[in-house]
Design goal:
The chain has 431 residues and is an alpha/beta fold. It has 15 helices and 17 strands. It has an eight-stranded mixed β-sheet. A six-stranded mixed β-sheet has the order 6-2-1-10-17-16. β1 (3-8), α1 (12-24) and β2 (28-33) form a beta-alpha-beta unit.
């Protein structure tokens, strides 16, 4: 018997889940909807995109799909450490035991979609430019508003039925919003104190530019809490973001390319030297983005609806774990379907039970691992160095550093939080 599964949002976790399910059984027919256009057909500069890092968690989730890890590595760069650029011009380098993969989010989605359509074209229906406007749990239906293709087009709503519904539609999930109409559903959502603007340096590999070591994440930080992160991409460019406190309007008030260049030359000289006037103009016109953190008391409704990824547990980007945690969700749910012999009723309920503590812990870790005060940040650096040294000589007595556990292991987030609850409480109080 064919089971129709509707997945909302063709982001990394939504497409990966489609791959897992279609690999599991011929019984599944999947319809995948996304509010944006097909990234394979869009001009890349117009697609939704930003740099991401894949850690041990994300790569472990990708590995079971034959050929996928190889395809992802082909569009990625290995990153084996971080360079902290200090305001006095000196640098401090930290290394990693296990390399991260850095890549562009849109390229990851395109690669996942290529795998999906190549392997399962006859059992997957892709619907781009369809905005989800309503979900009716009682009728097991979802309503979409297709976007107009031309100015003369007349859009009509589209309502489809489902046997199972997966909401992978991000922090502002329409599927999750319907949970508010169900009994005993609780949600906590907060804007993080920092906002950000994406940053791209397409000519970062020019020989005349300041040297920034490949294979590293490059980080700059000012005393008033402004942080710049840049990662190399496979094409030699660099991309990243500038994060700043919501109340700090210095970046927001940069209204001309000349003002942008002056700002970066003053506060982040190497970045300023890499930035062209055209990129300064692009940066000036980019919107300021805010991030939500989400904590829910459950991720399912009945035995037919499930939310995962940012829809279930959106988190601060400070640790780079949003995409990794979302991909890990998919792998965990797949294991549950194995455990309960394809029994969705049990697997969906157990996903909430087994994932909630880790999801809540990830929000806590992302919010409170990095202190905002310069004094406490120095303590953070000293602690990390000491933990690394002690663990190297006494691995059975001393835990790896907080950041190493998060990015270089698959240890449950709740266990990491338990090990470092004293530090997290200290940072939380300070912030």
């Amino acid at each position: 018997m064919v089971e129709k599964i509707v997945i909302i949002d063709a982001g990394p976790s939504g497409v990966l889940l489609a791959l897992y399910l279609l690999q599991r059984s011929d019984r599944y027919q999947i319809d995948l909807y996304d509010r944006l256009g097909d990234p394979r057909a869009l001009e890349f500069s117009n697609a939704r995109t930003y740099p991401i890092t894949l850690t041990e968690r994300g790569m472990s989730a990708i590995a079971p799909i034959e050929g996928l890890e190889t395809a992802v590595r082909a569009i990625s760069l290995e990153t084996n450490g971080t360079v902290f650029h200090q305001q006095n011009g000196k640098t401090r380098v930290t290394s990693r035991k296990k390399s991260l993969l850095t890549l562009d989010r849109t390229n990851l989605v395109i690669t996942l979609l290529q795998q999906l359509t190549t392997k399962y074209d006859h059992r997957i229906n892709l619907h781009f430019s369809h905005v989800c406007t309503d979900v009716n749990f009682a009728d097991q239906s979802v309503t979409f508003q297709p976007k107009a293709q031309t100015s003369e087009s007349t859009d009509a709503t589209l309502t489809v039925n489902y046997d199972r519904l997966i909401g992978a539609d991000g922090a502002r999930s329409v599927v999750r919003s319907q949970f508010l109409n169900t009994e005993m559903f609780e949600i906590e959502q907060k804007y993080i104190p920092n906002v950000y603007k994406s940053l791209g340096l397409p000519d970062a590999d020019q020989s005349s530019a300041p040297y920034l070591e490949p294979g590293k994440v490059h980080s700059w930080r000012t005393h008033d809490g402004i942080v710049v992160l840049l990662l190399y991409q496979a094409d030699g460019s660099m991309s990243g973001a500038i994060y700043f406190p919501r109340h700090n309007t210095q970046v927001v008030n940069l209204k001309t390319p000349e003002a942008v260049l002056q700002f970066f030359h003053q506060h982040f000289p190497k970045v300023g030297q890499l930035m062209s006037r055209s990129e300064a103009e692009v940066f000036m016109n980019r919107a300021v983005s805010s991030a939500l953190t989400i904590r829910c008391n459950r991720y399912h409704y009945g035995d037919r609806v499930l939310i995962l990824g940012d829809a279930a547990h959106a988190t601060s980007p400070s640790l780079g774990q949003g995409c990794n945690a979302a991909l890990e969700d998919v792998a965990i749910f797949d294991h549950l379907l194995d455990e309960f012999a394809e029994g969705w009723a049990s697997a969906i309920v157990q996903f909430t039970i087994r994932r909630k503590a880790d999801a809540h812990a990830l929000v806590e870790l992302s919010d409170n691992s990095f202190p905002s005060s310069s004094k406490l940040f120095i303590e953070f650096v000293i602690r990390a160095r000491l933990a690394k040294m002690l663990h190297q000589f006494f691995p059975n007595r001393f835990s790896p550093s907080l950041f190493e556990l998060i990015t270089e292991s698959s240890m449950p987030y709740s266990e990491i939080l338990d090990r470092y609850k004293g530090w997290i409480a200290k940072v939380k109080k300070s912030n």
